[in-house]
Amino acid sequence: MTYQRILVGIDGSDNSTRAYDTGVALAKALNATLYLTRVVNRDRGMDVTFNVNDDFYQDLYVKAVQELVPLIEQAHDQGVQDVQAVPRLGDIRTLLASELPNEFNIDLIILGNTGINRVKAMLIGSHTGYVVRHSKCDVLIVK
Prior knowledge:
With 143 residues, the protein is an alpha/beta fold. It has a single domain, classed as 3-Layer(aba) Sandwich (Rossmann fold), CATH 3.40.50. Helix 4 packs across helix 6. The mean pLDDT is 88.
């Protein structure tokens, strides 16, 4: 199988940086379109508990957009022809596992391995684990 549309989740961690590097290398080698996403996770529980308003999320979204700009430029500089930024605000799990892959017909998702410990993973799960379990396309986890 040749991948033509690769989605990379960016969160600023070292593992997501490695996922980005892997995505760039694969997109270049396969002449694939590279989609970079930074998801601002909207947590309705936090909204109510801490009285978080839309301005808070809008500020985070603007920052997410700004963080993707240099990554697009770097990917172009490394020879990737088609790079698109797809920042989103919403539920990180469903956006990565289904909404973005369906919207852009993604055939490979690349994510960094999570850094949460086993106890936390057992209690709440990880975003990466959720994507692996629920995505209909291939998922590559980078450590």
